[in-house]
Specification:
The structure holds 2 protein chains of 2 kinds. By secondary structure, chain A is an alpha/beta fold. Chain A has 14 helices and 11 strands. At the A-B interface, helix 3, helix 4, helix 5, helix 12 and helix 14 of A face strand 16, helix 17 and helix 20 of B. Chain A: InterPro entries: G_TrmE (IPR031168), GTP-bd (IPR006073), GTP-bd_TrmE_N (IPR018948), GTPase_MnmE (IPR004520), MnmE_dom2 (IPR027368), MnmE_helical (IPR025867), P-loop_NTPase (IPR027417), Small_GTP-bd (IPR005225).
Chain lengths: ~425, ~625
């Protein structure tokens, strides 16, 4: 059984962040971080250090021994100071331990269930939480993939499928018309991906590309005051406003902190039928971004009028409170009426989804790339050894592709077969 | 009314293996076939095994099935494919004598205790609610049974095409069973349409072999069965020739007359076995395609030209065949044809191959969308064992992806379905390094002994081999050696101060048991087969232990069975999209659910929560 870990507490600048480690190596790992001396069960205040002795943080370390723990396994909780830098450095150190890996969403719960540690009504309560976590990760991943890393990941996917399919073709179609030695092309493909991975994991680049925090899209018909609302939220002139409908065409982003959470507000083009090509492009961009955002604020009279799916947690507010008699559930960017109520509602929803999507995803991607790098390196070595180790090279390729799954998507044997059958004339 | 425990309909490769498996399990079994001579007929290329397929044959053999032993008797050319690659991806293959194969299979079937062969046509199933309880024969006679296994290949709406001529039929020369097909239709099972093709058969006496490259079999033939000691039939060579630009011209000019290109066929064909028309259209840049000329039998002259299957009209087949070197005067004994047929979406099956909605009815072979004798036989085996378990009221026998290619295939079929005729490839097995042809017995014979489907001969041989293996492994793992000792023995290791066992050292590439003999003298007595086995195991040991976590996780998921009346729709927290997919696929275990597209770990946790709670309605 693997030992798993993950950030278990809320995202943002909370005072305390909790990282939970569960599995047979939990205690040994914690001992190593704290330079030993932890009780099997209890609470200790310790300085955490990495393998070279650098101080990470002063932390409260809670140890639980199986079976009396949340998961029924040995569990360690590290209560850290809640800064993003501290949390991410501790996650990174943990991922370097052999036999430890980041937990999948719901995996702690799953283990608790397997070990009979959860009463089933508790499980149902957790269902929403797991779901939100998965959803948050998925959205975060989509956001990453829509960005620059997405293009890279797509090229990795293609290169890896091609490389793996070449090796598999020589294995599964040995008595057919296939070149005996595919190593030269495979090597070029592997090297190319390897080169990218080395650059990406060097640190700086990825940190800039993968944003943490939530995205909130403001959507609505033209000229209801979306940009004015954004400006009011931002407290500065971030978007150009005018009385002309269709003023906002590009998506405008404003980052801010909302009750300790990092939030990026997106001001989008007003949704309406239009013959203006540029405005139309703006609208489809708006729809696209709104779809991927964590939360949508519908600035409109009803949910239905926009033709955008209203998802759980989305907020409907009526526009132009300053011009209404009935001010319930309405907001005005001009007078500020309803503004603080709206901020509270947004913060409440986001806090509910109190999961560390951004940070965890960033760490997940980094680990994925590190693991893939190692496997590709090994695959290269086995390729050099000649055809009698192709099957081991193929195994390393498979591990590499699986490691990168969160970035390049699932690669099935069918994807490899597709590539094989489109490249080679098989069937004797 | 006559009663049998298990009835198998069809005497092809799936049917034979199913009937034998059920009989080995000790239940009273009847195999019903149109004619006795049809048992064990190889209707396509008379070859058994290959990559992935050879693995399947070994696994069938490890469970004491018949295919491996019969193929060894009928083999007229044995080749181990991928000899120059690692043992995990080596697959035994043999060209078989069609006649010997059929005769041996018939005699095995006649001799099997508890298995009766009945000649007749099954025209209907006897039903008791949604449970099958027997069959009706064309002569009106009824036989009752606890389980029925249907292995009728391409009989569902089978249509044979030669050029623009189409006629109903299963194999060339067989009649389709219309009534039985109608009964199946009443079950409302999801179906799809597939096609496959065959090449024209040639008379070997009219081929000019003198200028052709000849391919002999292996010098040391690797057989299929763990029981076989040596080949029994005379060994032959196969010829190799090639198509040329003239061949391609003829085919191109006549493309519109091909059934497949003339728009007469809508079924989906296998991409790994394209027709010659397909090859020329899709790979027009290739100037030539390889053709293997494979003798079908020692006792007649039929040659199977592997590589030119077609649905062109007979005169075009003649023209293009004659344009090929060595075949200038070749006589066509039987024209090539394409066959189109319906298959039943295998997602309507449980992993035991029993239909989810029709109790007691099992499907095996081509009817499930697969192709190949080996794939069919392996399914027959699974259906036969499980039918016997139903008779006894025992739990289903489920093969896993981590223990066998059989398990990989069954899981692929029942959880993913098929989009083209399904054929085994080694790349389908994620645990390929441990699922090897060489260790099929160690993976499955023990299971077979527990099930009770292993005969005394095999049991004795297996137990003896396991004892020898255990002894060998203990000799190789008890003592550790320093780098200095190892280097002195001529085994190059770095001076890292690490002590290593014999097994550790065998994991290095190019270290063999004989290199260790000077250090461990007991090894001199080790039988060659055991040496090889120990070396193979050591070679992959690192990878196999690395995969152990994945295997454990998979097995955990496989153990969580999902009951057939499980209500996915009412699970709170599952997305509607996933609910729909789950309701459609009706996975039978958590492992199957995990293979559904778009499944998330969280969703699995929710399903598990519901499973643990029992299938009661959840509070709103």
């Amino acid at each position: 059984m693997d030992t798993i870990f993950a950030l278990a507490s809320a995202q943002g600048k909370a005072g305390v962040a909790v990282i939970r480690v569960s599995g047979p190596m939990a205690l040994a790992t914690a001992q190593s971080l704290c330079s030993g001396g932890l009780p099997a069960r209890g609470m200790s205040l310790r300085t955490l250090r990495d393998s070279t002795g650098n101080q990470l943080d002063d932390a409260l370390v809670l140890t639980f021994s199986a079976p009396a723990s949340f998961t029924g396994e040995d569990v360690v909780e590290l209560h850290l100071h809640g800064s993003v830098a501290v949390v991410s450095s501790v996650l990174r150190v943990l991922s370097d331990f052999k036999g430890l890996r980041l937990a999948e969403p719901g995996e702690f719960t799953r283990r608790a269930m397997e070990n009979g540690r959860l009463d089933l009504s508790q499980v149902e309560g957790l269902a929403d939480l797991i779901d939100a976590e998965t959803d948050a990760q998925r959205r975060q991943a989509q956001r990453v993939l829509a960005g620059q890393l997405g293009d890279l990941a797509e090229s990795w996917r293609q290169d890896l499928i091609r490389a793996a399919s070449l090796i598999e073709a020589t294995i599964d179609f040995a008595d057919e018309d296939i070149p005996e030695d595919v190593t030269p092309e495979v090597r070029i493909l592997i090297d190319r991906v390897q080169h990218d991975l080395i650059r990406e994991t060097a640190g700086v680049v990825i940190a800039e590309r993968i944003r943490s925090g939530f995205e909130v899209a403001i959507i609505g018909p033209p000229n209801v005051g979306k940009s004015t609302l954004l400006n009011a939220l931002a407290g500065r002139q971030a978007a150009i406003t005018s009385e002309y409908a269709g003023t906002t065409r590009d998506v405008i982003e404003v980052r801010m902190e909302l009750s300790g959470l990092a939030v990026t507000f997106l001001d989008t083009a007003g949704l309406r039928e239009t013959t203006d090509i540029i405005e139309d492009m703006g609208i489809s961009l708006a729809l696209d971004r709104a779809e991927r955002a964590d939360l949508r604020v519908f600035l409109a009279d009803s949910k239905e009028e926009l033709g955008v799916c209203f998802k759980g947690g989305d907020i409907l507010v009526h526009p132009k409170a300053d011009m209404r008699l009935d001010k319930i559930d309405s907001v005005s960017g001009i007078t500020g009426e309803g503004l603080s109520e709206l901020v509270d509602r947004i913060a409440a929803v986001l806090k509910d989804r109190s999961i560390s999507a951004g940070l965890a995803t960033r760490e997940r991607h980094r680990i994925a790339m590190e693991r893939a790098k190692e496997s590709l390196e090994a695959a290269s070595l086995f390729l050099d050894a000649g055809t009698n180790q192709y099957e081991i090279a193929a195994e390393e390729m498979r591990v590499a592709i699986r490691s990168l799954e969160s970035l390049v998507g699932r690669v099935d044997v069918e994807n490899l077969l597709d590539e094989i059958f489109s490249s080679f004339c098989l069937g004797k | 009314m006559k009663h049998c425990d298990v009835i198998v309909i069809g005497g092809g490769h799936a049917g034979c293996e199913a009937a034998h498996a059920a009989a080995r399990m000790g239940v009273k079994t009847a195999l019903i076939t149109l004619k006795r001579e049809g048992i064990g007929v190889m209707s396509c290329n008379p070859a058994i095994g290959g990559l992935g397929k050879g693995h399947l044959v070994r696994e069938i053999d490890a469970l004491d099935g018949v295919m491996g032993r019969v193929a060894d008797k009928a083999g007229i050319q044995f080749r181990l494919l991928n000899r120059r690659k690692g043992p995990a991806v080596q697959g035994p293959r043999a060209q078989a004598d069609r006649k010997i194969y059929r005769e041996e299979m018939l005699s095995e079937t006649e001799c099997r205790i508890g298995l009766e062969i009945l000649e007749g046509e099954v025209i209907d199933l006897l039903m008791q609610g949604d449970r099958v309880c027997g069959v009706v024969l064309a002569d009106g006679c009824e036989i009752s049974a606890d389980a029925v296994i249907l292995t009728t290949g391409t009989f569902l709406r089978g249509v044979i095409h030669i050029g623009n001529i189409a006629r109903a039929g299963g194999r060339l020369g067989d009649r389709p069973s219309v009534l039985l097909a109608q009964r199946l239709e009443t079950f409302g099972l999801p179906m799809g349409r597939l096609k496959t093709g065959t090449p024209p058969r040639l008379d070997g006496r009219s081929i000019d072999w003198s200028g052709l490259e000849m391919q002999p079999g292996d010098e040391n033939p690797v057989l299929f069965s763990f029981l076989s000691k040596s080949v029994s039939a005379r060994q032959i060579e196969c010829g190799i020739t090639h198509t040329n630009s003239q061949t391609h011209d003829i085919i191109e000019k006549n493309l519109n007359r091909s059934a497949m290109y003339g728009g007469h066929i809508d079924g989906i064909g296998p991409r790994y076995c394209p027709s010659i028309e397909d090859k020329i259209v899709r790979f027009s840049e290739k100037e030539s395609h390889q053709i293997f000329l494979e003798p079908e039998s020692l006792s007649d002259h039929t040659i199977y030209p592997n590589g030119i299957s077609t649905s062109l009209p007979v005169e075009v087949q003649e023209a293009y065949v004659h344009s090929i070197k060595g075949l200038e005067r070749a006589e066509i004994l039987q024209p090539g044809y394409a066959i189109e047929y319906d298959f039943i979406d295998p997602r309507s099956l449980r992993p035991s191959l029993e239909l989810k909605d029709v109790q007691g009815l099992f499907l095996a072979g081509q009817i499930n969308g697969t192709t190949g004798y080996e794939e069919a036989a392996a399914q027959g085996l699974v259906a036969g064992l499980n039918a016997a378990h139903i008779v006894r009221g025992k739990e289903a026998i489920v093969f896993g992806r981590s223990n066998s290619y059989i398990g990989v295939m069954i899981d692929d079929l029942t959880s993913r379905g098929v989009s083209e005729p399904y054929r085994m490839f080694t790349s389908r097995a994620e645990f390929r390094l441990s699922l090897r042809a060489d260790n099929a017995d160690q993976r499955l014979t023990k299971l077979g002994l527990d099930l009770g489907c292993i005969g005394e001969d095999r049991k004795a041989i297996f137990l003896e081999k396991m004892e020898q293996l255990d002894r060998a492994k203990s000799i190789l793992s008890t003592t550790t050696y320093t780098p200095t000792q190892l280097n002195a023995a001529g085994i190059g290791v770095s001076q890292d101060g690490k002590r290593r066992t014999g097994l550790d050292v065998l994991a290095f590439p190019n270290v063999h048991v004989e290199d260790l003999q000077s250090l461990i003298p007991e090894l001199c007595d080790m039988a060659p087969a055991i040496r090889v086995q120990v070396e193979y195991d050591a070679l992959y040991a690192t990878y196999i232990s690395r995969q152990a976590n994945d295997v454990d996780a998979l097995k955990r998921d496989e153990r969580h069975a999902i009951p057939s009346d499980f209500d996915f729709a009412s699970i709170i927290g599952l997305s509607n999209e996933l609910k729909q997919k789950l309701v459609g696929a009706r996975p039978t275990s958590l492992a199957q659910a995990a293979r559904i597209d778009g499944m998330t770990p969280a969703a699995l946790a929710l399903i598990l929560a519901r499973l643990k709670r029992g299938n009661r309605a959840i509070r709103a």
